[in-house]
Amino acid sequence: MIIYNKTWLKNLIIQDQMNLSVAAGDLSKEEFKNIETAYPVGFYSPNIFVRTGLFILTCVIALFGGCLLSYMFWDSGMVDSGGWILFLGLISYITLELVVKNKHHFRSGTDDALIWISGGLFCVAFVWITAQYNWYPDHYNADLLPPAPIVSFALILSLYLTLRFADSLMALFCFLSALILAVVLAVLHLSFGAAVIPFLVMLLSAVVYYFSYVSSNRVKFVYYLHCLRVLQAGSLLTLYLAGNYYVVQHLGNELYGYTSIGPYKVPYPVFFWPWTILVPFIYTGAGLYKKDIIPLRTGLILIAIAAVTFKNYYHVLPIESTLVLIGLVTLGASYWVIRYLKVPKHGFTSEELQQDTIAGGINIESLIIATSQPDTIHGTENKFGGGDFGGGGSSSSF
Amino acid sequence: MDTDLYKKLHDEGLISDETLVRIAEKHKTPLFSLHWELKTLLYLGVTLLSTGLGILVYKNIDTIGHQFILLFLAGICAGCFFYCTKKRNPFSRGKVKSPSSFYDYILLLGCLSLLSFLGYLQFQYHVFGDNYGLATFIPMLILFYVAYEFDHIGILSLAITNLAIWSGVAITPYRIISNGLFSSDSLIKPYLFLGLLLLAAAYFSESYNFKKHFKFTYHNFGLNISFLALLTGYFSFYESPASFLWLIAVLILGFILYKDALKSKSFYFLLLVILYVYIAISTLIVRILISMDSELAFVTALLYFIGSAISLIIALIHLNKKIKEI
C-alpha cells in the first residue's frame, strides 16, 4: 500500500534515532557515518527552506499548467464540467506518483503540494459531478453540515492518501472528516442525534486516541509513526473541545437557534464545567506521569484555552489585574521548577538534552551521573513510565 | 526497543563497546527534558506581566494609585536589572553564553517594564519635552546598549523595532498590512534607508567581528525591509518611466545579497533573495506581456510561469547541493 521504499523508511527511522544520539553526544561522528553507509536512505528530503520553496513553486506550476490546459481545450467545450476537474486531478495525481517513484521525493515540498492539490481537485470534481442530486432532506440545516456523501468521499479519499503517502496532515484531515461524518449521520438518522453530539465526538476521539497510542508502539505501524503522533494530539484536542463549555454553547446555538423557550442553554453544566477546567490538568498530569510529550504539550495549551473560556463567563477580576497575577504566578512557578530541577529529579530535567554540552558548560553525562547516584527507588519507578519513546523522541516537532 | 537497536548495531560492528555501555547506562535512567515547556511558560509569564502592568498604568493614570503602580513598575525594572548584573557573564566581543533561560526572560521583563516606565514618564511629566523624536530615541539607545552589553538577541529585535519607530515607520507585519503597502509614497525612502542601514550593520558586525551572531537578526530585518521598500517603490511609481530603476535596484541588491548568502552558506537568505528577485522579474515580464495585449501574450505568460517555476525548482535543488558541498 505505502508507496515508499520500505527498507529506506526503516533506515530513515534508524538514522533519525542515531542523529539524536549524536546530538546528545553519545555517538561519535565516525560511527554515525558508518551507520549511514550501512543503512542508506535514498530519499530526496531537503531542509525546511528548500521544502517551502518547492511547495510554493509546485503550486505555481500546477496553477498555471491547469490554466494553460484549460485554455487550450476551451473551444472544445469540455472544460466547463466536473469531468475536466477530475482530469486535472488525475494528471496531478499521476505526476505525484511519478515524482515519488522515479525521483524518490519524500517530504520534499513537491510531493506535499501535489498530495493536497490532487486531493482537492478530486473533491471539487466529486461535488461538481454530483451537484445534480439533492442530498438535503427538508429539515436539514444545510448551512452548518455538509451532505453525508461528500464527507464520505473526502474521508475515503484522505484515508487512501494517508495510507499511500503516510502524510501526517492528511491523517489529521481524515480523522476530522470521520468526526464530521459521524455527527452528520447522527443528526440525520437519530431523533436525539443533535443532543448527543458532544458525547459522540468525545467517544470517537477517545477511541482514536487509544488506537493511535497503542499502535504507535507496534512494529507493524512503524511507517506511520508521524501520522499516529499527529493523530494523538488531534484526538486529544477534539476530545477536550467536544466538552468545552464555550464550544458546546455556541454549536448548540447554531444547531437549535432561538427556540420558544429562549436562547439555547447548555444542559448538564455540572458535567461540562468540570470537564472544561479539569481535563487540561489531567492531560498535563498524565503527560508528566507517562513522560509523554504529546498529552503534556496539548494539556499546557488547553490550560490556556480553559482559562480564556472561564474568563469569558465569569469576570472575577479586571483584565489587567488578571494578566499581572497570572504572569507573576507563571513566572514564579517556572522559576521554582527550574530551581527544583537544577539537579535532575525523578527523571526530569530543565536542561536541553540534544546538545553536546548544555548551558553552563556541564556535560550531560555529569547530569546522568547525578541522577543515577542518589536513591534507587526512583530508578525502578522510571522503568515503568519511561519505556515509551526512550527519551530520544522528546524533541520531535510537528 | 531502543537499546535493542543499539545492540544490533553493536553486533554489526558499527558502534564501539564504549558507546554501547554509555547508551545503555543512559537508558537505565532516561531523562525527560522540560526545557521548551519551561521556556514557553517563562515567555508567557513575562509577556502577560508586562502587558498587564502596561494596561494597569494606562487605566489608572489619573487616580492616586498610579504612583504606587509606577513605583511597582520601577521596582520590577530595577530588580530585574539587579538580578541580571549579578548573574551575568563578563562582556566579550564574541558570543557570551547566557547563565540560564530564566536570566534571559528576566532581562526581557526588565526591558519591557523600562519601556512602560519611560513611556509613562513622557506622558505624565514630559521628561523629553515635546520632542517626540527624543522620546523614542532614548529608549532605543538604551535597548541597543542592553542588547550588546548583556548579549540578548530578543532585545536586539526590540531595539531594531524601536529604531524603526524612531525613523517614522512601522515594521511589524500587522502595521505594514493595515497601513497598506502601496498607499504611503512618503514612507518608501525611510523604509529603504532603514533597510540598507540594517544590512550595513549586519555586514559590519561580521567584518569587524563584533557580536558576529547578531548578524542574522540585522540581516533578516534589513533584507526584507529593503526588498519590500524597493518593490513598493516600483509599484507606486508604476506610471513613470523611471520606475524601472527600482527594479534594477532590486536586481543589484539581489546580486550582492546572493553572493553574501552563498558566502555565509545560509540557504534561508538565498531562498528569500531568489523569491524577491523572481517577483521583480515576473512583474516586469507580465507588464510587457500585458502591454502587448494579444492572445499569444496570454499563452506566453502561462508558459513563462510554468517554465520559470520548473527552472527555479531545479536551481533550488542545485544550490542546496552546492551550499552543502562548500
Entry summary:
Chain A is built from 15 helices and 1 strand, in the order H-H-H-H-H-H-H-H-H-H-H-H-H-E-H-H. By secondary structure, chain A is mainly α. Chain B has 2 domains: 37-133; 171-326.
Describe this structure in words.
The complex is a heterodimer of chains A (398) and B (326). The radius of gyration of chain A is 25 Å and the shape is flat. The relative contact order of chain A is 0.07. Chain A has 15 helices and 1 strand, in the order H-H-H-H-H-H-H-H-H-H-H-H-H-E-H-H. The two termini of chain A are 24 Å apart. With 398 residues, chain A is mostly helical. Chain B contains 13 helices and 1 strand. With 326 residues, chain B is mainly α. Chain B is flat. Chains A and B meet through helix 1, helix 2, helix 3, helix 12 and helix 13 of A and helix 1, helix 2, strand 1, helix 3 and helix 5 of B. Strand 1 of chain A pairs parallel with strand 1 of chain B.
Structural descriptors:
heterodimer, A: about 400 residues, mainly alpha, about 65% helix, B: about 325 residues, 13 helices, about 0% strand, flat
Distance between the termini of chain A: 24 Å
Quick one: which chains have the greatest interface? A-B, 80 and 69 residues
Which outline of chain B best applies?
Answer: flat
Number of domains of chain B: 2
Note the quaternary state here.
Answer: heterodimer
Helix content of chain B: over 70%
* Silhouette of chain A: flat
> How many strands of chain B?
1
Helix-strand makeup class of chain A? mainly alpha
Average residue-wise pLDDT of chain B: 82
User: Could you list the spans of chain A in which at least 5 consecutive residues all have pLDDT below 50?
Assistant: 356-398
Rg of chain A computed from alpha carbons, rounded to a whole number of angstroms: 25 Å
Mean residue pLDDT of chain A: 79
Contiguous low-pLDDT stretches of chain B (5 residues minimum) are none
Number of helices of chain A: 15
